[in-house]
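Appendix C. Worked example: NADP-dependent oxidoreductase
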Amino acid sequence: NQRYILAERPTGMPDEDHLQLEEAAMPEAGDGQVLLKTRYLSLDPYMRGRMNDSASYATPVAIGEVMGGEAVSEVIESHHPDLSPGDLVKGRTGWQTHSVASPDALYKIDTGLAPPSAWLGVIGMPGFTAYVGLREFGQPKEGETVVVSAASGAVGQVVGQIAKMKGCRVVGVAGADDKCQHVVEHYGFDVCVNYKDDDFEDQLKAACPKGIDVYFENVGGKVFDAVMTLVNDFARIPVCGRIAHYNQTRLPEGPDRLIPFMQQILVNRLMFRGFIQSDHNELLPDFRRDMSQWLKDGKVTYQEDVVEGFENTLTAFQGLLQGRNRGKLVVKVS
Ligand code: NDP
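Step 2, the predicted output written as structure tokens:
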């Protein structure tokens, strides 16, 4: 059994000193439990937050503990009537090649609806995040302009496709030309702008001739600043993520912009709404019904970035925080 232990809390980018790969004894399944072999491990931006010892919506990973995370695994030994060897399940089993769990902490996946890895992406947590954030808090209407950042990623690609189905003009923002090209060609985004271009602000303005009605916020930083100059009255801003700041060690220098920002919220009657997908689990049945239909009808497609080999987990995670992934990042463990 191989596993990654949180040995030390990172400041800035996590590395081998913080997350140590070690050999451990094979876990043993007790009464009512199953032994699992990890097939695909999901890597997600929120994991960076779990490495910090700061107040958040979830408890941090403790020092010396296996790094947390969701995976699709195969049951290889069962001491419970509900699951049999060969079954595929998803659960929060962490960064390890084998684990032990009780069936009530696992969800048996239906590979007839989508392949195993997709249960960590388009029909899993990131897809659900896009669905909840847009439907509940973005509330896009036909003809409106929806902007989404980290547009080619696990969440962004789904946000854009749902917004297109709603009849919106969809503008993506991403950090590479090939990512931009991909979302336009494969997901039907109207335009996508690379925020690393020198004239990014001008390009975004040109892409949104009628202003911005919904901004699905995934990144923060300069993208957020540029969007805020273009929002319309009554714009909705679901605040999903702020990845540009996850490795930040201190606040940037510069004037305090809180007063004009609050003024803009008032004058433009903006609605900001932070949300965490897991608070909305009552929508999971709706989501799974809609998404499986969309996948079947070809209305939603998706891109995965599959990294081979458990030993490459940390490098792949570092890449996620630097924009190296192309689509939903998963590690193929076995
Ligand atoms: P992605 O698949 O989009 O991967 C992360 C991407 O973020 C990178 O590929 C990169 O794309 C972009 N990025 C990385 N660093 C920066 C930076 N400094 N500035 C701007 N962009 C950056 O990840 P997800 O789709 O899984 O997650 C997207 C966002 O959604 C994250 O902020 C995440 O925390 C959040 N989230 C929130 C949830 C919730 O319940 N609220 C649940 C799931 C995710 P690029 O090349 O375009 O910069």
